[in-house]
Structures are given as structure tokens and as C-alpha cells.
Amino acid sequence: MSQDTPPAIGTPGRPPSRGIPDDIEIRVARPEELRAIGELTAAVYVAAAYISPNGSYSSHLRNAASRFREAELIVAVQDGEPIGTVTYCPYGSPFAQLAGPGEAEFRMLAVSPMARGRGLGEALVSLCVDRAREDGCTTLRLSTEPVMHAAHRIYRRLGFVRTPDRDWSPAKGVDLLTYALAL
Q: Are 48 and 109 in contact (CB under 8 A)?
């Protein structure tokens, strides 16, 4: 799903949501940014103690190149540096874990600690909502850890509802909650 010259999402140099500073651009990632995006994603999850720095999921988070190839890797950039990211996964993407036909999901939402509190996480999720609507999806899904309280607030504020019947465990000791938004 990657392209040689990925299009900007929204107006280039402008965020897709109100309240985001004008100097933040949210768009499809570029190949030269993949290493920095992978490091950002892993660093955010490690710093919050969601994962072990040396665990297998840490290397999975660092592998932004695979998300770029097999899903739609979105990045928020300020002063040329990635400060936030999310992976949009349409049904059929190897990264889609929950989505069925007519659905999509997003994964690996991460915002740099220095960029928090400015609505960036909400803007990234809102962009996934817009993408799912553009794709004609009926539902947008996500999985989250129980301790990700700030993310849960974003999801509820945007209209996502808990779907406990879809909660699951990808590995021993990792219990994930699920949410869905009817589109």
C-alpha cells in the first residue's frame, strides 16, 4: 500500500483536525522516515512500561517498514521529526487482527511524550476513522491494553464503544480490550 510519493493527508503542512498546531503535518509515512517511526513507536511503549525493551513485541514495533508495506503507516511530523504515528489496517492486511469483511482497524498508536496534550492522538485516530469511511467500512475496530487509560478516553470521546465479546489474548499474560466504532 506504500507509494513512491505518498500523498499528504489533509492539506500539506496542515493537520486534519482542529486544535493541532499549524507546524504539525499528518500524512502517510515516507521511506526515509521508517527507522525513526519504528524507534518512536517502540520507545513510547517501553517508556510507558507497556512492553519490555528487549521483548519480541519491541522488535515488532520497531519494524515500521513492514507496516509501511502491508498496511497504511501514518505519521505526524514536526520540524522534520516524527512525533506521532498510527497504523491503519484495512480488512485483509496482514496487520489486521480483528477486522472482518467491511471493517478496518488501527494499531500501534504512539505519540511522543513531548507532543502529548495537544490533541495529536485524537487527530491520528480521527484520521483512521476518516480512512475507514473512505474505504466504505461499516466498523472501525481496535485492541488496547487495560492500562492505556489516556487512549481509552480518546476512543470514548470519539464514539468508540467497548466490545468485550471480542477481547482477546495474543500471548500468555497479555489481555487486550477491544473497542469498535460504527461508521
A: no
